[in-house]
Automatic annotation (TrEMBL):
Its main location: membrane. This is Type VII secretion-associated serine protease mycosin. It comes from Actinokineospora guangxiensis. One of its GO terms (biological process) is proteolysis. It comes from the Bacteria. The active site is at D97, H130, S330. PROSITE patterns: PROKAR_LIPOPROTEIN, SUBTILASE, SUBTILASE_ASP, SUBTILASE_HIS, SUBTILASE_SER.
């Protein structure tokens, strides 16, 4: 429960009291066990594994229109205002994904750092068409007549190809599984640190039923802690419903006992996980909730770089050949990774924890206890505020401490009728005086003939 109250910088504004009886049970898996750093950090070496391609790579869809307008998420996050404060210059964002193609609008700012799918690859091949879309949301820089652009258009992209649903490998029991494991993800994270990444975007997730931590998860946890301690900001997607065994978005009604565990988001002490919002400001129907969700960002109706050609794309081909919008928490995460790059440029002295807290603190908090809930975390990010707000904890101000203040009613005040009595007596006296006056005048007029009027008009 302690880390659900966030770090000191966040607690400076959002006091997080733990309700009585709310302490987590030993059987709760909302929080992973503490990391064991007595064991070595994973190696960044690419394992000698053979992957077989099972699906043809994505191809360029026929275009009915030329995509020029800015997507709704870009307008909502006020991209035009951001360039006044930062553009991501001299900041490197590692994209651990399906690879990133050398798109014309990333020209000169994208480099490959390794391929865990194909031997000898450099990370600049994207068969799935996923990593290029992610990289575009972070750092695309089209010409001025194109409305779309990345949130950090001057950032550098470091591509590490670590996963693919288009390739598979044999398991030890003779089965098949998609390329990319928790072990290779851990190695890719260490590789990104060794290549001097400032921010890492991981739009990859593993979902499983709740239970004790596994050995592969322990390896990943050590890699995340290693990168976090090196000052690298780690951003991951929260996960999508019906993907990788995540079958329900509710994830249980008890926030301390989720029915599913999603990694890397589970290790939210070191990573900032991102849920998806739609253009109406509601949580996207597919976003997986959990006690580890940090913030949210646009995740529907996505426009980004075309992974199979030049220009842009806002649709993908489905398995049956139809077209569908590009959407998912995978594409909400790079908005936040790009924002982290902007914060790193503007405030280079901040630690990874302080960057994460700044993004959480300045988000549009939901109306929930502590300013967060399990669906959207601390809410939709607010990039302008994240780049301009004064954070008390960064200035050495002690965090606020919540107190149990009991409500007490004031003592009863006896009713005092004196003012009413005085008012009634005064009013009664005035009426009596008026009646006496009228009686006297009437009597005087009747007893003095000269005051009576003559019927002919003479006194």
């Amino acid at each position: 429960m302690a880390r659900r109250c966030a770090a000191a910088a966040l607690a400076a504004v959002l006091a997080c009291a733990v309700p009585a009886g709310a302490l987590a049970q030993e059987t709760s898996f909302a929080d992973p066990p503490p990391v064991d750093m007595s064991k070595p950090v994973p190696s960044s070496a690419i394992p000698d594994a053979t992957h077989t391609q099972k699906t043809a790579c994505v191809t360029d869809l026929p275009r009915d229109v030329d995509i020029k307008g800015a997507p709704w998420g870009q307008d909502r996050l006020q991209f035009d205002e951001l360039r006044k404060f930062a553009t991501g210059k001299n900041v490197t964002v590692a994209v651990i994904d399906t690879g990133v193609t050398s798109h014309q609008w990333l020209k000169g700012r994208v480099s490959g750092a390794g391929d865990y799918i194909q031997k000898g690859g450099d990370g600049l091949s994207d068969c799935d068409g996923h990593g290029t879309v992610v990289a575009g949301i972070i750092a695309a820089k089209p010409p001025s007549d194109v409305g779309f652009r990345g949130i950090a258009p001057d950032a550098r992209i470091l591509s590490i190809r670590q996963s693919s649903t288009f390739f598979e490998r044999e398991t030890t029991d003779g089965g098949k599984e998609p390329a990319g494991t928790l072990a290779t993800l851990a190695s890719a994270i260490v590789r990104a640190v060794e290549q001097d990444a400032d921010v890492v975007n991981m739009s990859v997730n593993r979902c499983r039923p709740s239970g004790p931590i596994t050995e592969d998860e322990k390896v990943l946890q050590r890699a995340l802690r290693f990168a976090h301690d090196k000052g690298v900001v780690l951003v991951t997607s929260a996960g999508n419903v019906n993907e990788d065994r995540c079958k329900e978005s509710a994830n249980g009604f008890d926030p301390n006992n989720p029915t599913n565990i999603v990694t890397p988001p589970w290790f939210d002490e070191y990573v900032l996980s991102v849920g998806a919002m739609d253009r109406n400001g509601d949580p996207a129907a597919f976003t997986v909730q959990g006690p580890w969700v940090g913030v949210s960002a646009p995740g529907t109706e996505i426009t980004s770089l075309n992974p199979a050609g030049d220009g842009l794309a806002n649709q993908r081909a489905t398995a049956n050949g139809d077209r569908a919008p590009i959407e998912g928490t995978s594409f909400a995460a790079p908005y936040v990774a790009g924002l982290a790059a902007l914060v790193k440029e503007r405030y280079p002295e901040l630690t990874a924890r302080q960057v994460m807290d700044r993004i959480k603190l300045t988000a549009a908090h939901p109306a929930a206890h502590g300013g967060r809930d399990n669906l959207v975390g601390y809410g939709m990010v607010n990039p302008v505020s994240a780049l301009t707000a004064m954070i008390p904890a960064e200035q050495g101000v002690e965090p606020a401490v919540s107190e149990d203040v009991r409500m007490a009613m004031p003592p009863a005040v006896p009713e005092d009728l004196t003012p009413m009595r005085v008012a009634l007596i005064g009013a009664g006296g005035g009426v009596l005086l008026l009646l006496v006056t009228l009686f006297v005048v009437h009597t005087v007029r009747r007893n003095r003939p000269e005051l009576r009027s003559d019927p002919r008009g003479q006194a």
